[in-house]
Automatic annotation (TrEMBL), chain A:
Residues 63-175 form the Peptidase M16 N-terminal domain. The lineage of its organism: Bacteria, Bacillati, Bacillota, Bacilli, Lactobacillales. GO terms for molecular function: metal ion binding. Residues 182-357 form the Peptidase M16 C-terminal domain. It holds the Pfam family Peptidase_M16. This is Predicted Zn-dependent peptidase.
TrEMBL record, chain B:
InterPro entries: Metalloenz_LuxS/M16 (IPR011249), MPP/UQCRC_Complex (IPR050361), Peptidase_M16_C (IPR007863). This is Predicted Zn-dependent peptidase. Gene3D superfamilies: Metalloenzyme, LuxS/M16 peptidase-like (3.30.830.10). It comes from Pisciglobus halotolerans. Residues 179-354 form the Peptidase M16 C-terminal domain. PANTHER family: INACTIVE METALLOPROTEASE YMFF-RELATED, METALLOPROTEASE. One of its GO terms (molecular function) is metal ion binding.
Amino acid sequence: MEKIVYAQLDETVYTEVLPNGLTVTLLPKNGFHKTYGLFTTKYGSIDNTFVPLGKSEKISVPDGIAHFLEHKMFEKEDGDVFQKFGRMGAAANAFTSFTQTSYLFSSTNQVKENLGTLLDFVQEPYFTEETVNKEKGIIAQEIQMYDDEPDWRLFFGLLGNLYPKHPLHIDIAGTVESIMEITPELLYTCYKTFYHPSNMNLFVVGKLDPDDLMTFIRQNQAAKTFEEAEAIERFFPEETVTDIRPFHAISMPVNRPKSIVGIKGAEPAPQGKEAMIHKTKMDILLRLLFGPTSSNYLRLYDQGILDDSFSYDYELERSFNFVAVSSDTKDPERFSETIKAILLSAKDSPELTEKNLMLIKKRMIGQHLQSLNSLEFIANQYSQQTYGEATLFDLVPIIEAITLEDILYMADQFMHEERLSAFHILSKGEKKE
Amino acid sequence: MSIQLTEGVQLHLLPTNKYKTIQITLKFKAPLKKETITQRTMIANLLEISSKRYPTQTAFRSELSELFGASFGTAVSRKGNQHILTVSLNIVNEKYLTMGNGITEKAVQFLEEVLFHPNVEEQHFDQTTFKREKEKLRDDYDGLYDDKQTYASLALQALLFEDSSQKVPSIGTAEDLEKITSSSLYQYYQSMIQDDEVDIYVMGDVEQDEIVAYFKNFSFNARQIAPRSPFYQTTSTSELREKTEEQEVTQAKLNLGYTTSVFYHGEDYYAGQVFNGLFGGFPHSKLFMNVREKESLAYYAASSLDTFRGVMVVQTGIDGKESEKVKAIVAEQLYDMQAGDFTETAFLQTKNMLKNQLIQSEDNPGSVIERIYANQLALGKTVSLQEWIEGIEMVTREQVIEVAKKVKLKGIFFLSGGVK
């Protein structure tokens, strides 16, 4: 078990890779009452074409299957896993993103029992025709709920423009049609391929004794057998800039129109710690251009072109990276044209000064330290493993080292018109009170 | 430790070294009146973005950035018969910053500036800012229609209550907004600063004497606080109020509202928590197990209590044509609760979950402050965690059944997806 001390932050992390390939990380925070455990596989909604474990031919599986699998992990022959956690007073949940699926519990006592339940339920699949079919109605309602959410539709509208072939543009839960094709056999195939311990990590944070807990985890894992691990082969469609749809709009029953502008990054994005540095540079650039202390923000707010729903983000994950800037707005056309102009002239922006950079670095460091109050935030960030060895505790020195030249270079490299797209949601019909 | 800064203004210090931050929260409390809700929302919005010294958002947010990205925000909420305006500031503890000496004092000075020196000239709020914020709030009201879960909740609320101050959203209404001018709002601001009951909470690893000294610089005047029940008692009617609306949505929303006997730390409080947990508060609850797991009719079907108004709300997202079936299942679950038809396992599990939830909330500075403040509102004192846990443990099955029997369906709002 390796021990890493972050003296300035007053945090100590314990980590170990077990013989079966599972990466385990423990972060004791003994002032807290709770313990939060997160068990994650690098398997998300975009992983829909791959070579199954032990096979040589690639297959394509129905959209939404990773999320469907997450739902079905909770049902076992002897009942529902929620009940098992509940009897020990623990709360449990799970979530699926584009690139990962995570299972979690939080409890204030019986940590080992709850952790054992987490490991065992995720490592013992049980899928039958009956339980799979029963879930289809529930997930169909989940999909339809998101269909009515304007912000969700806005985000996926942009993804549809930027990634028309890549499975990123498909709702994480799939479609009402695609989930109907899911069978227990397909779930087992996905499970065996992606839930191998070598493709997973376990993170536990909160009230815990690292030696005792690591011994417990080692024993739990040593008692189980897994097939020989293989490197997982995933396939994504080729896309070029000509595939990007520059604009699209839809109408929904909303009073406030919405607009989003995005820029798709060039492949390949950096890996490991470099990716974290790259991401941080873009985060700073976006704050300089659009943050609450920028003159762009003030001008557009005062003109009523954006409001406090305004947001900007840089997403960087396995196989994709893009910038997205969005807001509720009375004038979607004017919003998207203005944002485009700011993005495309970013390298010449008067906002990119040493003084502004200093202020934003100060703010980012402070906000980062505030976010470390939340055990959930720490666990979720740590488990993403987007940055190889680098973790959220490495962020402060990375922020400190970034220079204005780095930001100018980023602005010059990233912002290209042919990679840019906009999507609008317009109001359908009369204004309603 | 609590100190009275002046009559009607209390400072509460909550020392802990668990966090890397210091959380400061100010609560301004006034009796709930429909006319003032919208004014209070406008004030919250104006205080959140400007002051005399920092008149633009750029200047305002730059100062917060200088305080190492201090998180600052305002919000309004309704608790029973009261309207609460909350101002909160969260900063990193100087101990974790290399160049952060003195930021705690500066942060408190910033709060003083924001509260006592708004961007005002000649007895009115700055016209340009006021105009823009009025337009923005009008947009916010329009936007309430866009999120259909929010829309359905608000529509049920309007159906459930008799008083106009309880029917409207806690952020007010477009109709009342139109009556507000920059000078009438300034007048209201002055009475708020003078008359509202104020509670200030500071949580973190701080020198208590220093904090007290900083807050003594706030020019709060003494104020008389008339004793008043914090609770709103709704009337139960024999006639069920039903409303249906059609919109072009994919998923229908069926929301049901009930009157209950469950009030915050009242006689039925602990039993009410257990009842709600069993009925629709947890994944092992009757609503989750029957509407979702057994019949596959919904992704979400849950109940929640408003213990300052004595009501319970059930929210579901369903296929529109199943509404009668879902109504029947929900009614059956309540009937089963009233008949005592719940297992001992589920009963004990609910208690465990409630205890776990409560203890976990101790790990979040914001929720600790909210809990202590709610205690203060309802009881004038803090209920210890231990007392609370014992309260849950003592609940009997019979008490849960009695609470269930007092739950009466009062209103149903159905947003159907009929048009598509």
